[in-house]
């Protein structure tokens, strides 16, 4: 990964990663014991310059029992701005308590995934990284099975400065994401990550417009379609349509497909197709979902100009009042902070349920932004600073820091007893806290596999762009999956299927 590319933001990456059917295939990111087919980086991801940061809350700054020394390389999702400032404030608090410690911040977002995979496999991992493990993400399982990740479970009984045991502070859904529970795993029972934020895919909406139109967010799919019809009628004079979507961005058109099939078909049925040998043609629920999705196009519920609006432009148009709703991750308000009018009121609710659907109608799509430490035995280029890494993660996941992130960055806390951001007041976060709850990884983790991304997502884009109908979309997906599986069976690294 070149130094230039290592500084890409998530927006820049998506623009360069193939937003149309003819787009460039994303570098494969699935871990394996041998190097992947992704080209090696021309240089390691660049260290981030350290701007001034707000001090971390005092409750988290109690020094560790022993002074920490050496260097610590911490992955960061953004290299500047308030998110980075908060992350760096944690490091600053550690350096204040441990003057012999130095910390380097390295870009660790989507654009650098392939380069970081190669670094891990070459024995040169970051001391703290993102995205190494998710118990419900098949594309991350080999990290656990090949013993690449340090077991944080041995620290969960550690007592924090607040007097609580570290492991007792996390929501159950985070425990489920970060702990290996598969019977077939060689590392069953280990905790391979610690979540610092919940990321949820939500229906986000213009609260002022809803109040003006006298409507409420829809809880069921039939109610949602009726809501769209009302907004289409009442919003016409304002040039406002019901739904914002980016036509050239297949990641964003696939949001709707993924949520509908989970509600209608159910997670097990979807997984059998995506990671098994099933076909969408075999379950009528897939056709129902595709037909329901097509109604959004046929009934003119989509924002004017969506066909040519890349995702950044589309989101800006949403905040400019061109659409009343958008289905997007909870990162939306922080990502688009500079484009949101000062008086804009953003609300959010989970995706509507589908009457008589086979799926769990309370299931939420999302993930935990989780931090992991590499297994020191796998690092050959340097000694992993485990003690400093564990202390950093403890401080970053503290109630005080998570509360600050919730209030200032609208980040949904993964910790018990921390209030969620006001934006998400209508989201039933209790569903994520219930015993046995788990988040369905958004995109079903397809986005970690370049060829599967193209096979699964691109046909949804074609439907939104009015190039195909629902039945044709299913035929194309099945054709793409057959090609993908045949190549894997032959020992060939799959590439993007033909459009």
Structure description:
This protein is α/β, with parallel strands linked by helices. The chain folds into two domains: 3-197 and 367-431, 3-Layer(aba) Sandwich (D-Maltodextrin-Binding Protein, domain 2); 200-365, Periplasmic binding protein-like II (D-Maltodextrin-Binding Protein, domain 2, 3-Layer(aba) Sandwich). It is built from 18 helices and nine strands. It has helices at 3-6, 10-16, 82-97, 113-121, 141-145, 172-178, 207-213, 221-234, 250-264, 267-274, 284-298, 311-319, 332-335, 386-396, 399-409, 430-433, 450-464, 470-489; strands spanning 70-76, 101-107, 129-130, 194-206, 241-244, 323-329, 346-349, 365-372, 440-441. The strands form two sheets. Strands 3, 4, 5, 6, 7, 8 and 9 form a seven-stranded mixed β-sheet that branches. The longest helix has 20 residues, at 470-489. The radius of gyration is 22 Å and the shape is globular. 50% of the residues are buried. The model is unreliable at 1-53 and 58-64 (pLDDT under 50).
């Amino acid at each position: 990964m070149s130094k230039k590319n290592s500084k890409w933001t998530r927006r820049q990456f998506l623009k360069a990663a193939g937003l149309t059917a003819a787009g460039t295939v994303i570098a494969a990111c699935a871990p394996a014991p041998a190097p992947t087919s992704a080209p090696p980086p021309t240089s390691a991801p660049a260290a981030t310059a350290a701007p001034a940061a707000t001090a971390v809350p005092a409750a988290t700054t109690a020094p560790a029992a022993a002074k920490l020394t050496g260097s610590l390389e911490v992955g960061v999702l953004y290299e500047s701005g308030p998110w980075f400032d908060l992350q760096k404030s944690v490091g600053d608090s550690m350096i204040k308590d441990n003057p012999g410690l130095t910390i380097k911040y390295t870009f660790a977002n989507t654009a650098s995934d392939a380069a970081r995979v190669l670094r891990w496999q070459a024995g040169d991992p970051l001391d703290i990284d993102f995205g190494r493990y998710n118990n419900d993400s098949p594309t991350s399982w080999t990290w656990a099975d090949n013993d690449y990740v340090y077991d944080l479970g041995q620290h969960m009984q550690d007592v924090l400065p607040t007097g609580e045991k570290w492991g007792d502070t996390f929501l159950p859904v985070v425990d489920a994401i970060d702990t290996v529970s598969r019977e077939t795993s060689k590392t069953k029972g280990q905790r391979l990550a610690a979540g610092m934020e919940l990321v949820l895919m939500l229906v986000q909406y213009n609260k002022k417009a809803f109040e003006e139109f006298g409507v409420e967010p829809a809880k069921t799919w039939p109610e949602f379609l009726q809501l769209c019809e009302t907004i289409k009628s009442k919003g016409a004079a304002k040039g406002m349509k019901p739904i914002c979507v980016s036509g050239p961005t297949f990641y964003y058109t696939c949001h709707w497909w993924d949520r509908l099939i989970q509600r209608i078909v159910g997670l097990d049925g979807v997984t059998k197709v995506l990671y098994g040998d099933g076909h969408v043609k075999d379950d009528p629920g897939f056709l129902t979902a595709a037909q329901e999705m097509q109604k959004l196009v046929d009934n003119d519920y989509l924002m004017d100009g969506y066909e040519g609006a890349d995702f950044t432009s589309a989101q800006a148009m949403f905040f400019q009042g061109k659409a009343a709703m958008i289905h997007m991750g909870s990162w939306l308000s922080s990502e688009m902070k500079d484009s949101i009018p000062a008086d804009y009121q953003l609300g959010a609710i989970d995706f509507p349920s589908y009457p008589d659907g086979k799926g769990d109608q309370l299931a939420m799509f999302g993930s935990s932004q989780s931090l992991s430490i590499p297994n020191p035995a796998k690092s050959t280029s340097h000694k992993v600073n485990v003690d400093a890494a564990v202390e950093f993660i403890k401080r970053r996941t503290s109630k005080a820091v998570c509360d600050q992130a919730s209030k200032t960055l609208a980040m949904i806390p993964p910790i018990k007893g921390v209030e969620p951001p006001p934006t998400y007041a209508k989201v039933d976060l209790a569903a994520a806290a219930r015993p046995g709850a788990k988040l369905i990884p958004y995109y079903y983790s397809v986005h970690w596999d370049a060829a599967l991304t193209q096979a699964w997502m691109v046909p949804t884009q074609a439907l939104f762009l009015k190039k195909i109908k629902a039945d044709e979309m299913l035929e194309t997906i099945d054709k793409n999956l057959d090609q993908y599986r045949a190549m894997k069976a032959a020992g060939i690294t799959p590439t993007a299927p033909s459009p």
